[in-house]
């Protein structure tokens, strides 16, 4: 039965290490991305800068 306990601890250590790596990658991506968008407060960033009405023709 000891072998099962050792295997369980090994799996748990691997899971924790993978989670640490994911957290580190998440932080690195957040730092790379930089500050938030430059949209005005209260404005939806998905539609910022869109002008309603007919659009100019594509040249």
Automatic annotation (TrEMBL):
Residues 13-26 have a biased composition (Basic and acidic residues). This is SRp25 nuclear protein, isoform 3. Residues 1-59 are annotated as: Disordered. Residues 1-12 have a biased composition (Basic residues).
């Amino acid at each position: 039965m000891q072998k099962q306990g050792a295997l369980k601890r090994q799996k748990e250590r691997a899971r924790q290490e993978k989670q640490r790596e994911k957290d580190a990658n998440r932080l690195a991506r957040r730092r790379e991305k930089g500050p938030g968008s430059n949209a005005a407060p209260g404005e939806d960033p998905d539609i910022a800068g869109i002008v309603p009405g007919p659009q100019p023709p594509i040249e």
